[in-house]
Amino acid sequence: MLFLILAVASSSLIAVAMRATEEKRDSAMGMFVVNYLVCSVISCLFAGRIAFFSPLPGFGRAMVLGSITGALYLLNFVLYRLNIEKNGMAMASTFMKLGVVISTLIAVVVFREVPSLLQILGIALAAASILMIHTEKADGGSSSGRWLLPLLLVFGGITDSMANVFDKTGDPAIRDYYLFYIFAAAFVISLFFLLIRKERMGRWEVISGILIGIPNYFSSRFLLLSLGSLPAVVVYPAVSVGTIAAVSLAGFLLFREALSRRKLLAMAVIALSLVLLNI
């Protein structure tokens, strides 16, 4: 349970750091380059060496799974940005968060995790709370880009599920190598896009990348540790809705963002869903 709480806290700090620096930086890709570089360095520190190779069994699998996951990280970022542009912030955020339904279904179908009836109700309430928060205000958007929404939902869920794939098939002894390859792959790909697009990277891209990179690494680490001690059908919905509630509260306390009645009701639903998920 402690790792689950720490995963939620780390994920929330990512959103807070992004919100606090969004008006100061010019290049989102530059921020992500620094973010993934910081995550790669921290992964090496935890591994105790430069994590390019390990004689431990299962290293090859960790390298492949980590590289695929890193590429999926960047794909989700691109899909999210495209969906914001084509379908608006509310719809993009809704479908990104609803990816938890896909990761939960994968846990049930592929890994035979069977939730209890109360946990099924908790998952349903978690999905309902996401819809309540992210569809509060209708955004504009073009109907021509609607096909991007299910892509975001599916690939977001698949990306989240990669941690569960490693937890079920990989060796915990090489967890740090797996995390290194996630962030190293994402760093190389994001650096490639930065150079191709010739985006300028200044002081605030570096600062925001560092501020985001530290909690980003630990959110992935604590998610893996949570999956090692709790069922994925509990972990994924709990982290998703717990982060939403924590970010909404942080927005109110730190940035004076209003909490409407609908958001307050959604947070009450989140609290109930978390109780049901952990019974």
Short descriptors:
279 residues, mainly alpha, 11 helices, globular
Rg over alpha carbons: 18 Å
- The unreliable regions are none
Total number of distinct structural domains: 1
Order of helices and strands: HHHHHHHHHHH
The largest β sheet comes out as: none
Beta-strand percentage range: under 5%
Measured as a percent range, the helix fraction is: over 70%
- Tertiary shape: globular
Structural class: mainly alpha
How far from one another are the termini?
12 Å
3D architecture notes:
The structure is a single chain. This protein has 279 residues and is an all-alpha fold. The chain has one domain (2-277). Helix content is 79%, strand content 0%. The protein contains eleven helices and no strands. The chain has helices at residues 2-21, 28-47, 59-87, 89-97, 99-109, 117-134, 148-169, 175-197, 203-229, 232-255, 261-277. Helix 2 packs across helix 9 (203-229) and helix 4 runs antiparallel to helix 6. The radius of gyration is 18 Å and the shape is globular. The chain starts with a helix and ends with a helix. The mean pLDDT is 86.
